[in-house]
Amino acid sequence: MRDLTLFASTFLCLNVLIEVEPKDPYYRFLKRAGAMDYIDDIVLPGEEIGMRVDYDFNYDPTVCVVERITAYNLSTILKSIGFTGIR
C-alpha cells in the first residue's frame, strides 16, 4: 500500500485518503508503522467523492483489486489510476 500512496501522491499529485470506520485504530497502526507520510487524511466511507482503490465496487469510480495490494498487482493498479511511468 505504501508504494501505491507514494506514486499517487508524488507522481500523480492526488490527494490520498484512507476510507475506514472506525478511524482511530487505523490511524494509530499506520502512524506506528510509519505509513502516514503519503496519506492526507483518514475519512469515513462515502464521506468524499473521487477515485477509489477497493476490492468491491461500492462507489463509482472504483479501481477494483482482488483482495490486497501486492507487488504482483501494483503496476496494474498504478496504470488504472493514470500512472504512465517516471519521466
Give a short summary of the structure.
31% of the residues lie in helices and 14% in strands. With 87 residues, it is α/β, with parallel strands linked by helices.
Describe this structure in words.
- 31% of the residues lie in helices and 14% in strands.
- The chain is α/β, with parallel strands linked by helices and 87 residues long.
- The chain has one domain (2-78).
- The strands form 2 sheets. Strands 1-2 form a two-stranded parallel sheet. Strands 3-4 form a two-stranded parallel ribbon.
- The chain is globular, with a radius of gyration of 13 Å.
Overall tally of structural domains: 1
Mean pLDDT: 82
Q: Total helix count?
A: 3
Major β-sheet, in short? Answer: 2 strands, parallel
* Count of β-strands: 4
Measured between the Cα atoms of the first and last residue, the distance is 22 Å
Radius of gyration: 13 Å
Structural class: alpha/beta
Content of β-strand: 5-15%
- Going across the biggest sheet, name each strand in turn: 1-2
Helix-strand sequence: HEHEEEH
Categorize the overall geometry.
Answer: globular
Helix content: 25-40%
Q: Unreliable stretches, pLDDT < 50, 5 or more residues?
A: none
Keywords:
single chain; 87 residues; alpha/beta; two-stranded parallel sheet; 3 helices; 4 strands; globular
